[in-house]
Design goal:
This protein has 111 residues and is an alpha+beta fold. Helices cover 15% and strands 28% of the residues. The chain starts with a strand and ends with a strand. The structure holds guanosine.
Length: 111
């Protein structure tokens, strides 16, 4: 994973990325979700990105401080994939954003 990611002017640190990815996997493994849109949820990759990780993908809101626990999810998400069969590990795929996109589309944030 990158040391930081820039989503249309919002910079996420490696710690922010780790925190969101870790929370996504731990909610998934425990069968729990947070927020009105039930994160983490499956990211179907309608956009057709070429991630260096395998489907199924999960998306989870990423924040510049703390970990998402409900409320507005903002525009930015971490994507994880390559989830191990015992759900104890996964790989970082990308950080994506709704910023600068039309409708509900996502674009990739830069490293
Ligand atoms: O975009 C509309 C809804 O579909 C949102 O709740 C998204 O989180 C969800 N969604 C699931 N997979 C995808 C995907 O691959 N692309 C986009 N844009 N939205 C997705």
């Amino acid at each position: 994973e990158p040391t930081s990611s820039d989503c249309d002017g919002t910079t996420y640190s490696q710690e922010n990325i780790d925190d969101a990815a870790t929370a996504a996997l731990s909610y998934y493994a425990s069968g729990q979700t947070v927020g009105r849109d039930s994160y983490p949820h499956q990211y179907k990759d309608y956009e057709g990105f070429s991630f260096a990780c395998s489907a199924p993908f999960l998306e989870f809101p990423i924040l510049t401080s703390g970990v998402y626990s409900g409320g507005s999810p903002g525009a930015d998400r971490v994507i994880i994939g390559s989830i191990s069969s015992d759900e104890s590990s996964a790989e970082y795929c990308a950080v994506i954003t709704h910023d600068g996109q039309s409708g509900n589309a996502f674009g990739e944030c830069s490293d």
